[in-house]
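As a warm-up, study this chain.
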Amino acid sequence: MPSVGDVIELLIDIPHKNLHAGIQGTVVHCHSDRAYEVEFTNEEGETLDFLALRPEQFIIVWRAETRQWVPIAEQAAALVANLPTETGREVLDFARFLSVQLWRTEALSRT
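Now compare it with the structure written out below.
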């Protein structure tokens, strides 16, 4: 679960707040009802908005406790965990396809 200071990435668009999927924000408060207050800022560090979000609306990309970026594999797993089962299977199939393509490309470059 998120902690204060963690950096998150939105998984959804929030048009009425002019926030889009992929934008990053910082958890500034953990509410008791599985909601997290997140601050979104611009490139100058000026606050754009504060918004209470549920965990299924974002993934954690940087953990304040460890002061480290979350590995891509963990980010992908968190993202897939929020998808319907069939959509998750499609993502897994696509990841397998990419893995095979990479393996074939590397094998060809060695010959």
